[in-house]
From TrEMBL, chains A, B:
Catalytic activity: 3 propionate 3-nitronate + 3 O2 + H2O = 3 3-oxopropanoate + 2 nitrate + nitrite + H2O2 + 3 H(+)
Organism: Candidatus Accumulibacter phosphatis
A Pfam family hit: NMO
Xref: SUPFAM superfamilies: Inosine monophosphate dehydrogenase (IMPDH) (SSF51412)
Top-rank taxon, per record: Bacteria
Similarity comment: Belongs to the nitronate monooxygenase family. NMO class I subfamily.
Cofactor(s) the record lists: FMN
Molecular-function annotations in GO: nitronate monooxygenase activity
Record keywords: Detoxification, Flavoprotein, FMN, Monooxygenase, Oxidoreductase
GO biological-process terms attached to the record: response to toxic substance
CDD domains recorded: NPD_like
The protein, known as: Propionate 3-nitronate monooxygenase
Gene3D superfamilies xref list: Aldolase class I
Length: 278, 278
């Protein structure tokens, strides 16, 4: 990436870039740590780990989840025995979970993805999709989801480790415009558009491969953030940040759970009159 | 576009390409024709016509609709007095209606778009979004839509002028994979991926500008279709063709209208318990 002008602008020594990956895949060492705590649910992203690692997680009785961005990925996950599949619509913030095809043009919006996965698999489908509030929960349930997974809406909660520049961006009008970008990690992820994304283009083939881009951008990001700027930081957010609230996470959870319960009781379109039975 | 190998393959004389645009914008001549019939609703795409043309349509009392693909476009349309705005999510089939920005990376999925437009404007919002069935109608209403606009689901109805190759594609597994393409008209539109899109790439900067690409592709398309092939035809479809039914349009309409009525009566998430009021 053409980062040197930025490094000059912020007085950064390029040799300060740390070596090595910014993330590591799930490993035997990680499984060993988890085994002690035996979490009831383990949710993977970018597909699934190797069969022997997956088996190890299953042995302590954990329910296994993973994300599908297409019907094909949902079928692939079901065939490998996941307990539920998370349908990740194109609207979702952060990293796309796609693993069978890299073609972003094939990625599907939630409204089309959820009902087609529900129809294709027998396991429960969790909608993860820029759900911002009670309306979003009710809509996801109407589409046939068994539950919802919500990220962006929690990012202003006190419990979230969202950085100061990230919080400021989420509260601003800038949050209305997001894009998929590979600049910050090397893999496409959705974030609020900032100066780096505007100037280099959000998807730039010159970005280091995942997950090496994280380290490459680290000194620039740190320097800019120390000056109060989020223009070089990954400002992950879904396409609907309007549900972000500065409330305790427990309060937001109770509100959304109330909507879930209401939707389950009142809002089953299966009960609507059926005129056409082809 | 590198079409000459295809022209050779199908024995087409390139001089057979008709000159001129495949579509013309709304004009005084078109308004004159419409004026005779005084349609109660006139729905525009790609923004709005010039103010004097719009005024002419308004004079016979027509309700004016147009599509918004972003919150900014919805606000722009509301400021120009449209009676309702159609929220066109990224899932929709056929031409994207975007008119304030050409940047496809900024296009928003229905699940995120509808509630944000509902919140931003005071006029009714119609969701147009790969709604395939009663579940989709209920979900759109839950997101705050005042109504829905449905295209793809009607394309197998007897009344639709859908071509034979297009019908075959909609009924096949191929309908599960769509992409935005500019190859067939010069503007990005969503269709089922076929050979032309695979081989040239769905978005190709060499495609003639809108609407000239229609004529450029016409002889190849006609020749391939005469051989029963849809590999060079625009196979417009939304990201959820699973609701297509070979039933009379009236039957499908009654089914979907029943779902709309049911959703209006039973499924208002505004009635769900509200825990968090920030």
């Amino acid at each position: 990436m053409r980062k040197s002008p930025y490094f000059r602008e912020f007085g950064i020594d390029a040799s300060a870039i740390p070596a090595g990956p910014g993330r590591v895949p799930f490993s035997a060492a990680a499984a060993e740590v988890l085994e002690e705590f035996q979490p009831a649910v383990v949710s993977f992203h970018f597909g699934l780990p190797a069969p022997e690692l997956l088996e190890r997680v299953r042995r302590w009785g954990a329910k296994i989840l993973s994300s599908a961005t297409t019907v094909d990925e949902a079928l692939w996950l079901e065939a490998r025995g996941v307990d539920a599949v998370i349908a990740q619509g194109l609207e979702a913030g952060g990293h796309r979970g796609h693993f069978l095809s890299e073609d972003l043009g094939m990625q599907v919006g939630t409204f089309a993805l959820v009902p087609q996965i529900v129809r294709a698999v027998k396991i429960p489908v969790i909608a993860a999709v820029g759900i911002a509030d009670a309306k979003g929960v009710a809509a996801a349930m109407a589409l046939g989801a068994a539950g919802v997974q919500i990220g962006t809406a929690y990012m202003l909660c006190a419990e979230a480790t969202t950085s100061a520049v990230h919080r400021a961006a989420l509260k601003s009008d800038a949050a209305r415009v997001t894009a998929l970008t590979n600049l910050f990690t090397g893999r496409p992820a959705r974030g609020i558009v900032n100066r780096l994304m505007r100037e280099l283009g959000p998807i730039n083939p010159a970005a280091p491969a995942f997950p090496l881009a994280t380290a490459a951008i680290a000194p620039l990001r740190a320097q800019a953030e120390s000056l109060g700027s989020g223009e070089f930081s990954p400002l992950w957010a879904g396409q609907n940040a309007s549900g972000c609230k500065e409330v305790p996470a427990s309060l937001l959870t109770r509100e959304l759970a109330g909507a879930l319960e209401y939707a389950l009781q009142h809002c089953d379109p299966g009960e609507a009159p059926q005129a056409a039975r082809p």
